[in-house]
Amino acid sequence: MTSELSVTEAIQIAAQAADAKGGSELIALDVSQPLPFVDAFLIVTGRNERNVIAIAGEVEDKLNEAGVKTKRREGRAGGRWVLLDFGSVVVHVFHDEERSYYDLERLWKDCPQIEITLPEPVSITQ
């Protein structure tokens, strides 16, 4: 990573940012064994194109604020599959249809998952 953050810390920041914008089905995978150029993937689903773009924007903003600079960004205009490359961490934000079609979890099924800790949802009781 280009900052003082570990890969796990960067994944946590990205996951919390995605969750804050309504991202769902978050899965983080340790892909460091099969891939020499990246350590982890975070895969997120958005409800629609606008949501995918909002999630990707929030993830990028929060990681950049934490000192992790974006190396490459693809697919933001279409809002169907946005790929954010931060070097050691790559974030894939999918529209639900593309997530099902490309099924990255199946492709990388032999890679261990990285635990993600998200804030508990706030419940409003009357």
From TrEMBL:
Gene Ontology terms: cellular component: cytoplasm
General function of this protein: Functions as a ribosomal silencing factor. Interacts with ribosomal protein uL14 (rplN), blocking formation of intersubunit bridge B8. Prevents association of the 30S and 50S ribosomal subunits and the formation of functional ribosomes, thus repressing translation.
Database matches in PANTHER family: IOJAP SUPERFAMILY ORTHOLOG (PTHR21043), MITOCHONDRIAL ASSEMBLY OF RIBOSOMAL LARGE SUBUNIT PROTEIN 1 (PTHR21043:SF0)
GO biological process, one term: negative regulation of ribosome biogenesis
InterPro entries documented for this protein: Iojap/RsfS/C7orf30, NT_sf
Coiled-coil features, chain-numbered ranges: none
Location relative to the cell: Cytoplasm
Alphabetically ordered keywords of this record: Cytoplasm, Repressor, Translation regulation
Main subcellular localisation: cytoplasm
One Pfam assignment: RsfS
Summary of subunit composition and partner proteins: Interacts with ribosomal protein uL14 (rplN).
Name this polypeptide is given: Ribosomal silencing factor RsfS
GO molecular function terms attached to this record: ribosomal large subunit binding
Family (UniProt): Belongs to the Iojap/RsfS family.
